[in-house]
Amino acid sequence: MNFKTHLFEKFMIILGLLNILYFIICFFTFRIIVNFSGFFLLLGFILIVIGALGIKFPQKYKILIRIFKGLISFILIVFIILQACIIYNANTGIINNADYIMILGGGIRGKSMLLIQLQRTEKALEFIKKNPDVKIIVSGGQGPGEDISEAEAMKEYLIKHGVNSENIIKEDKSKNTMQNMKYTAEILKAADSGNDLRIGIVTSNFHIFRAKFLARRAGLNAEGISAPSNELLLPNFSVRECFAIIKSFFLDK
């Protein structure tokens, strides 16, 4: 059989296997089904089935394969554009000083911060040590399985590590990134008129692009302060973030 025969279908099968392998690696590394990682498992099976059908029944599923090729091409183009935006913003526009910084919550369990929120708070602490007079807004409400708000958890951590409590403002009502920005904009307007303030948004590297985009929608002059993410989970976070960007573009006003 010619190597080029069913090349697209073979590519789909290999890509499907890689997706399933990624899910398995994440599962055995963290001993849990990581949030959103099930997407890679489902996508893997779909790609394998499509590829296998195209090889086994090339004429019967010819139209389906053509449609799928077009769909995959479109999705890849969108994905590449969004990933370029994510990567570019994760590594540029980082400010060295600010009037305020806002730290975006990333989840807690009970009263303990999850890794993603801890990484953001630690990054903020680095910035605060270099800029001790900066005002800090800790932003994040209380969700299921959380005994306190994300904002309270971050505030307690910062105070424990020597940050002056008088410099910390809590925003503890938000449930998503758009609300983070809206409620913070309201706080800034009440506390400091909100005019011409330089805001540094402390969030995960993959989240900087969307956070800045939504901050501008809320009327904030904001730049990103990029916190690191777990390298193994970065593909998971980045793919999920693509869906979140599309959702935010159309729905978060």
Automatic annotation (TrEMBL):
GO cellular-component term (any): plasma membrane
Gene Ontology biological-process annotations: Gram-negative-bacterium-type cell wall biogenesis; peptidoglycan metabolic process
Boundaries of every DUF218 domain copy: 99-229
Superkingdom assignment: Bacteria
TM spans (from-to): 12-30, 36-55, 67-90
Keyword Transmembrane helix: yes
PANTHER family the record matches: ENVELOPE BIOGENESIS FACTOR ELYC (PTHR30336:SF4), INNER MEMBRANE PROTEIN, PROBABLE PERMEASE (PTHR30336)
Protein name: DUF218 domain-containing protein
Species of the source: Clostridium pasteurianum DSM 525 = ATCC 6013
